[in-house]
Amino acid sequence: MGEHRRLVSAIVADTVGSGLFMPITLLYFLATTDLTLVQVGGALSVSALVTIPVSFVIGSLVDALGPRRVMLAGNLLQAVGMAAYLWADSFVEVAAWSILLNVGRQSFWGAFGPVVVAISRPGERETWFGFLQAVRNLGYALGGLVAGLALQVGTEASLRTIVAVNAMTFVGAFVLLLGVPDHRPALDHEPPPGGWGVVLRDRPYLRLVGIQFAFAVGMMVLNYALPVYVAETLDLPGWTVGVLFTLNTLMVGLGQGLVVRWMTGRQRARMIALAHLVFVASYVVFVAVGLLPLVVAVVAVLLGAAVYTLGELIGGPVLNATAAEAAPAHLRGRYLGLTQLSWGVTGAVTPVVFTWLLARGEVAVWVVLGAVALLAAASAVRLPSTLSAAGATVSDGRLRDPVVVEETAGEP
After folding, report:
1. Any stretches that span the bilayer, and where are they (predicted)?
2. Could you tell me the pTM of the whole model?
3. Which long-range contacts (CB under 8 A, 24 or more apart) does 7-12 make?
4. Among residues 318, 369, 319, 355, which one has the least CA distance to residue 340?
5. Which domains does the chain possess?
6. Alpha carbon distance 198, 293 (integer Å)
7. CA distance 213 to 205
8. Full pLDDT tens readout for the chain, 412 residues
């Protein structure tokens, strides 16, 4: 971490807090309001849909004000929104404060990519994105553990305590970020004029965003498709779902650095394609689980989850590094805002799509997901012909040419 301990600590604080609240979100509002499950889900869904276009505004703000200021604003908004949950007791209030919370979350993570690029040098990008992804997962895991204790207590006071502590973690992250330098790219000449029109006309980058969208769809499997498939469709023991999440968290937290080291020297585009193919292999395992007896099925679904997580470990840091380096420095906030938008759209759409597909039978969801991943893999292989950053090789930072110390932005 070196000189970046405060930044990493802020990210830990943010993710621990989020890990605290995510597992109890629905249960908290059911316990503290008179809303039904459908009403709570509706309020949260409305807030997610309303805030999707905010990525465009955040991208522009990152370019104009610098990523650190946007991250600071994001933490404050999340702190206010989370604290307001303590008094929310109607559909409108839950939706309104959730909108504020989502805007803050998008602000923080919309500025995340530009900050990582600013603090790292060419040849270190996969290492930094991978390291911070591992840190985030461990933070979520720690927060989830504490949330589990609160659920074990099971009182309204314990749930409200979790919300209050989460609000304080956002304040803590804000204080830590105050001591972080205002990372902005140093331009040795006046940047050419440009805005969202430049970004949206950049067809090679839009192809990369499409591939990232397909990867994000795959990443939603563990949250939305697999738990329902395992517990409801296959009727496996309920504890299996918890073990799946634990396995995923541990693999990402402890194995991300090893995977980046293994990928070093290999072409980014091929690694992106491989990540999608590994996703396909995991889907094949999940389909096969439905044909197996109970004990073997439990072992097989855990094996499938391990294969699936390997796809996450391969694709995550490489896609992030490629997206960051393919963007011109003076428009990086907007470019990465577009990739952030893909995550927002998948988060809003996939719960509905996955549940609809699962209702069509055991295989439908995996066939569709497999087709999406195969298309993305085929597109990724052809990407270097139009996007030079995708043709570069993965580096873990140890093989960097020591002469190259200045940040260079890839051509869009």
Report:
1. 7-31, 37-58, 138-155, 161-180, 205-226, 238-259, 271-289, 295-314, 335-357, 363-381
2. 0.81
3. 7/115, 7/119, 7/176, 7/177, 7/180, 8/132, 8/135, 9/176, 10/71, 10/75, 10/172, 10/173, 10/174, 10/176, 10/177, 10/180, 11/112, 11/132, 11/135, 11/136, 11/139, 11/173, 12/135, 12/139
4. 319
5. 1-178 (1.20.1250.20), 201-397 (1.20.1250.20)
6. 55
7. 12
8. 666 788 888 888 888 877 777 767 777 888 888 888 778 878 887 888 888 888 888 888 888 888 888 889 999 999 999 999 999 989 999 999 999 998 998 888 888 888 887 777 777 778 888 888 888 877 777 777 777 777 777 788 888 988 998 899 899 989 888 877 665 555 555 555 567 788 888 899 999 999 999 999 999 898 778 888 888 888 888 778 778 878 888 898 888 889 999 999 999 999 999 999 999 999 999 999 988 888 899 999 999 999 999 999 999 999 989 998 888 888 888 888 888 888 888 877 887 788 888 888 889 999 999 999 999 999 999 999 999 899 999 875 554 433 333 333 333 3
Distance CA 391, CA 129 (A): 18
Q: Which amino acid, residue 292?
A: L
Answer whether 301's CB lies under 8 Å from 91's CB. Answer: no
Pairwise CA distance, residues 118 & 133, whole Å: 17
Q: How many CB atoms lie within 10 A of CB 164?
A: 13
Q: Which two tokens stand for residue 113?
A: 């990519």
What is residue 66's three-state secondary structure? coil
- Look at the block and give the residue holding tokens 């023991």: 237
Helices (H), 201-331: 203-219, 226-228, 239-263, 268-289, 294-325
- With b for 16 or more beta-carbon neighbours within 10 A and e for fewer, the 377-391 pattern comes to bebbbebbeebebbb
